Every structure is written in C-alpha cells, then in structure tokens.
Amino acid sequence: MSGISVSGFDTVLDALDYDVSGTAKYTVKARAEYAVFVEFGSSRNQAQPFIRPAVEQTMRNIDTLIDDTADSDEIARILAEDIADNSRGNAPVDTGNLRDSITVEEQ
Fold first, then answer.
1. Considering only CA atoms, which of 107, 6, 106 is closest in space to residue 56?
2. What phi and psi values does residue 99 have, to the nearest 5 degrees?
3. Are 107 and 26 contacting, i.e. CB atoms less than 8 angstroms apart?
4. Sheet architecture: strand order including 26-30
5. Number of domains present in the structure of the chain
6. Which end of the chain, N or C, is surrounded by fewer C-beta atoms within 10 Å?
7. Are 67 and 7 within 8 A, CB to CB?
8. Mind listing the pLDDT tens digit for each residue in 42-57?
C-alpha cells in the first residue's frame, strides 16, 4: 500500500502526565498514492507538508483535547482523529482526492 502512515502515538502518550495502560493503537493514513510526494516533495515539486504540521497542531492543543476522565485508549482515539482532521485542513486541494483519502484506522 502506498501513501503516508503516521504512527508514534506511544511516544506521544509517553510524553503525557497520564497513566498509559491501554492497548488501542490508531494509524492516520493518507491513502492517495501521491501523498508521500506532497508531504515530502519530489525532484519536480516542493514539499507541501500536511501531516507533520497536523501532528504539531494536535500537540499544541493536547491539553484542550483530553479531559481528566479519558482513559488511554480514548486518548489515542482522540489524538488520531484530531491529527486526521488537522491533516485534512492542511492538505492542498486540487481535486479533493488527497484530503478525502485521509483516514484513521484502529490497529
């Protein structure tokens, strides 16, 4: 499968002051075959990052996204959904295919 996959929620959760005991894992994917070339650029096109800035946006807003009652599985879901939403907002739009290809999958 081509596209971009963002993982590393374990690292994000390790950075939080929360007890991490859940088992849920989520992957944010951009399924458009050219997504990697948009994110990182190519020999012909400049990079137009949309996933990496989305992760940064989510991390800046993490305290407002997570309440004290959320368990670690719920935290993982909330973070994945927010990263996907931010990625869709950041994705350059030509036909809308790239934006529409961004999904969240539970592993």
1. 6
2. -55, -45
3. yes
4. 4-6, 26-30, 102-106
5. 1
6. N
7. no
8. 999 999 999 999 999 9
Quick one: tokens of 43? 């020999």
pTM summary value: 0.78
- pLDDT tens per residue, range 55-77: 999 999 988 888 776 788 888 89
- Checking 53-59 for CB contacts under 8 A at 24+ apart, the result is 53/86, 53/90, 54/28, 54/83, 54/84, 54/85, 54/86, 54/87, 54/89, 54/90, 55/6, 55/83, 55/86, 57/82, 57/86, 57/90, 58/82, 58/83, 58/86, 59/12
**SS percent in the chain: helix, strand, coil, step 5:** 45, 10, 40
Compute and round to an integer the Cα radius of gyration of the chain.
14
- Angle formed by the axes of helices 72-90 and 51-60, nearest 10°: 130
Q: Rounded to the nearest 5 degrees, what angle is found at the Cα of 70, between the Cα atoms of 99 and 6? A: 30
